[in-house]
Design a protein that fits this description.
With 186 residues, the protein is mostly helical. It has one domain. Helix content is 76%, strand content 5%. It contains six helices and three strands; from the N terminus they run αααβββααα. The chain has a three-stranded antiparallel sheet, covered by helices on one side. A hairpin with a 2-residue loop joins strand 1 and strand 2. Helix 1 packs antiparallel against helix 4 and helix 4 packs parallel to helix 6.
């Protein structure tokens, strides 16, 4: 039979009360930070100074257009528009991946961990989410050109579900990463 250390006994004793406080703290922090981030990207006077969403969208559209070129799908891009032979895609907030990155990043910030781990988690998650998002938009472009009758279905039901699943999956991976460090430190 293994003896419990003083720290393990203390953690077990406090577990019930502190876990409820931790969840409430996470939820409150998450909601406040999401409010701040949505304010930053949607407050019109601030958009005139720094248009985070517009700049982000232009970058995603340009990257997606390059990927389409690699896939031999002719396209041009301008602002938030990707023009293909038979369809034009207007990449808006919610489709540009910024919302998924914000939801993920705020969850990482709200979860208790060292700032070094948080920054690593945000950078890695950002990269994964954006690569998947650019491939998702390229896939939507492909479906719009080759399967126009299925485009709307793929866009609304499959493509959006992919982004939700990826953001959530990457966050679960981050939780394992953050918790593995916390267990080793304890």
């Amino acid at each position: 039979m293994k003896k419990e250390t003083h720290r393990q006994k203390k953690r077990k004793k406090e577990g019930g009360a502190s876990s409820g406080v931790g969840i409430k703290r996470f939820a409150v922090t998450y909601l406040l930070l999401m409010g701040v981030f949505f304010f930053i990207i949607s407050f019109v006077p601030l958009q005139k100074v720094i248009d985070v969403n517009g700049g982000y969208t232009r970058g995603v559209v340009a990257a997606t257009s390059k990927v389409l070129g690699i896939l031999n799908i002719p396209s041009t891009s301008s602002g938030s528009i990707i023009r293909l032979p038979s369809i034009a895609l207007d990449v808006k907030f919610g489709c540009n991946g910024l919302e998924a990155v914000m939801i993920y990043s705020v969850a990482v910030i709200a979860f208790p961990s060292s700032w070094k781990r948080r920054l690593i988690g945000i950078a890695a998650g950002f990269a994964v989410i954006q690569v998947v998002n650019i491939l998702r938009i390229a896939g939507l472009a492909y479906s719009g050109v080759h399967f126009p009758g299925l485009f709307e279905y793929i866009h609304i039901y499959i493509a959006q579900g992919i982004m939700i699943a990826v953001a959530l999956g990457v966050f679960f991976i981050y939780l394992g990463y953050a918790n593995s460090h916390a267990e080793r430190a304890a």
